[in-house]
Amino acid sequence: MKVEIITYRKGQTQSVVYDYLPREEGERPMALDVLLQAQATKLPDLSFRYGCRNRTCGLCTVDINGKPRIACRARVREGDKVSAMSTLPVVRDMVSTRDGIARQLRGRLPHTLRGNDLNVEAPSDYHALTACIECYACLDHCPMHARNLNSNGDERDENDAYRWGSPFSLLKLQRIRLDPVASTSDKERALTAAKDLGLGICRDCPGCKCGVGIDLKRKVIQPLLAADVQSTPKE
To answer: Looking at domain 99-231, what is its CATH homologous superfamily?
Structure first.
C-alpha cells in the first residue's frame, strides 16, 4: 500500500512515496503504523511525535489529505497523503510548534477554591470537557486562531504566546466556569479571558470540530456566548 509522506526540512517540503508492508493479511494500518514503519526502514531520520506509551495523548496529530487526524486512531488507505498540521508552524517533518497555544492561558486560568466545597459533584458537561487530549485538531478552519497566522508566519506576544484564542483555549476557560469549586470571581475572570482572546469572533462561525468528539459548539462556544450577552450591561 503506497502512502505519500510529506517531509519538511530547512523550509523545504518534499514528497516521499512510501510502500507500506502490511504486518498481516487485510491489515488497515493507522497513520502512526505507517510512520513508524517508514522510520524503521526507508526514512530513518523521519521526525514525528507520539505519546501513546507515556500517557501524553494528542501529540501524534497530523494532517491526512489536508485534515487533522490523530495518527494512532486514523486509518490510512492507498494513496493517502500524510503531512504536518497546517494550522501550526512546522519544525521538521510532522513536528509542529505547539507552545504558543498553551502559553496564551498562562495567568488566565484562575485556581481559587472555596474551602469546604471540594466534595461537590461537577455537572456532566464539565466531565465531558475533561475528555480533551490537546490534539489541537480543533484549530482547523477556526477563524479566531487563523488571525494568529499573518504574512510573517504567526502573531505572538513577548511570552511567545498567540494573541488570539482557539476552541482549545475556550474549552479550558469554560471548564473553569463549570467547576463547582471555582469562585464567582474565578468564573468571571474566565469569561473575561475568553472575551480577551476573541470570543466575539465565534458569533459568525458555523462551528468547530473536536478530534475526540466533544461537542464544542454546544458545550463550549454557545454557553460562553450566552454568558457574554448576560454580562453585557444593557443601555
So the answer is: Alpha-helical ferredoxin (1.10.1060.10)
